[in-house]
Amino acid sequence: MFAEIWKWLEDEKVGIIGLYGMGGVGKTTLLKRINNEFLKTKLGFDVVIWVVVSKQANAEKVQEVILKKLEVPRYEWKYGSKDEKSQKIFNILKTKKFVLLLDDIWERLDLTEVGARGPNGEDNMSKVIFTTRSKDVCHVMEAHKHVKVECLAPDEALSLFRMKVGDDTFNSHPEIPTLAEEIVKECKGLSLTLITIGRAMADKKTLRRWDRALQVLKTYPSTSLTFSGMEDQVFAILAFSYDSLSNGPIKSCFLYCSMFPPDYEILEDELVELWIGEGFLTESHDIQRARDEGYDIIESLKVACLLDSAESEKHVKMHDMIRDMALWLTTKPGENKKKVVVKERVRMVKSRDFAEWKEAHMISLWDIGTVSLLDIGHEMSSFPNLETLFLRRSSMDEISTGFLEKMPLVRVLDLSYNYCLESCWQVHQLVNLEYLNMSFTSIKVWNIVGGLKKLRCLILNFTHIKEISISHLSSLQLFSMHGGRLQIACNEQKALLEELENLEYINEISIILDSDISVKKLLSSYKLQSCIRKLHLQCCSKIISLELSPSCVQAMVHLEMLQISSCDDLNNVKINAEDKGKQGFISRYNMFLPKFCKLHEVHIISCSKLLNLTWLIYAPCLQSLAVSACESMEEVIGGSDRVVEDNSGLFSRLTTLQLENLPKLKSICNWVLPFPSLKMIYVHSCENLRKIPFDSSTGKNSLKKIQAEQSWWDGLQWEDEAIKQRFNSFFMPSEYMDLHQVLGYGY
Question: Exposed, middle or buried: residue 493 (CB in 10 Å: 0-12, 13-18, 19+)?
Answer without folding.
Answer: buried
